[in-house]
What does this fold into?
Amino acid sequence: MLRARPSGRHNGDPMSHPSDGFTGIVHPEVQAYLGTLVSEEDPLVARMETYAAERGFPLIGRQSGQWLAQLTIMIGGRRVFELGSGWGYSAFFFARAVGPGGQVIGSEKDAWEIEAYQRLFAEHPLAPRIDIRQGGAFEVLAATEGDFDVVFCDIDKQGYPRALEEGVARLRPGGLFVADNVLWGGKTARPAAPDDASTRALQAFNESFFAHPGLDALILPVGDGLAVGRKR
Ligand SMILES: C[S@@+](CC[C@H](N)C(=O)[O-])C[C@H]1O[C@@H](n2cnc3c(N)ncnc32)[C@H](O)[C@@H]1O
It folds into this structure.
């Protein structure tokens, strides 16, 4: 069954995005067209989008979420770590992709967001695959054993350069390091104001990401820009 997306803040795809950037990376007409091609989504996705819109909470957005799932499936990913989980929107797409017995370990500094996750996912069949742990993303990562097929970064932007180093170190060869917001509403494409620490951090991240000797790196211009690096 085909349908158009529910309308949201960004051309039908509510997502994380700086308020003074472009209104969308993709032309609105193309974005709307893409929305008509996507199959029916789990009702939980629309519920989470409504919950986000009511609170002005930045989500990764539906198309980016679907890319997270597709990329994970393409590498046979079974174990995912998220830096910055909020109340589980991006985790939902990973949880679908890892399959039965797969594991999505998330990290979130705010207790109320984990409580919201527990309410939103109560009784949902994907909930047993998701474990969002409260704390700083780097502390939770350090306290979690083992390697991952995918490490996903969506924390405060000044943490991205550190996330690249610590995240890639925890990937198995062939695994993916993925980061959201790397185009930052188009702001990373322009000189950053000296006091714009987030844009400067993202620009530094993008340069280190492409120069990383252990990664094959590319940016997908979907949503607010998804960096996707495959560990060699
Ligand atoms: C942009 S939101 C996105 C959440 C989720 N990935 C999604 O798409 O719905 C980022 C979340 O990361 C959390 N966060 C930011 N920096 C963090 C850090 N250093 N450690 C843990 N959580 C962090 C914020 O509280 C927020 O809930």
